[in-house]
Amino acid sequence: MIAPTAPQVSVRAMTEADIEAVSTLRVRGWQHAYAGLMPQSHLDGLSIADDAARRRGHFRDASGETTHLVAESADGAVVGWACFGPARGDDLPRGEGELYAIYARPDLIGTGIGRTLVDEVLRRAPYRALRLWVLEGNTRARTFYERAGFSPDGAVCADPVEGVPVPEVRYHRPRTR
């Protein structure tokens, strides 16, 4: 298998015009990354149009606490997306943030897009530490986060998807600025 070529990307704030591309990244990303980790019927039922409709609502009603970034290739295509904001969880210290999501186009995974997005999140996030949740069985993502300086903090949860528990592990990364 030939490794994909790393595209030159720039990172910028997401705009409403990016919603369809981001929803495509999210849905195709879930279908790629979570195959075998959650019910296939759930993954098969994901809809880009439904995700885009939800995303439009979130985007319009945004409180300003969540930051959305896109990685854009030289030809203007959105090839990655990340969002972050205040950490969720009553057990966490004040002043921490959370990386809510990060996706690269599935055919470009391993080309550095994710790392570029993580670096930009770390540069822009005003928090003293970042948390994130990752599916326990998603070894590729866990390895990616560990290489970026995140480590499991001991918290776990298992939200059901179509009645099947899907275990997640929370990761932590202190700021080093």
Order of helices and strands: EHHHEEEHEHEE
| Total helical elements | 5
What would you call the shape? globular
Rounded to the nearest angstrom, the radius of gyration is 16 Å
Taking all residues together, what is the mean pLDDT?
93
Most strands sheet? 7 strands, mixed
Strand order of the largest sheet: 1-2-3-4-5-7-6
Strand content: 25-35%
The helix content, as a percent range, equals: 25-40%
Content-based structural category: alpha+beta
Give the strand tally: 7
Q: What distance separates the N and C termini?
A: 39 Å
Low-confidence stretches: none
Give a written overview of the molecule:
It is a single chain. The protein has 177 residues and is of the alpha+beta class. The chain is 31% helix and 33% strand. The chain has 5 helices and 7 strands; from the N terminus they run E-H-H-H-E-E-E-H-E-H-E-E. The chain has a 7-stranded mixed beta sheet. Helix 4 (113-124) links the parallel strand 4 (97-104) and strand 5. Helix 1 packs across helix 3. The longest helix is centred in the first third of the chain and has 15 residues, at 19-33. The radius of gyration is 16 Å and the shape is globular. The N and C termini lie far apart (39 Å). The model has no long low-confidence stretch (mean pLDDT 93).
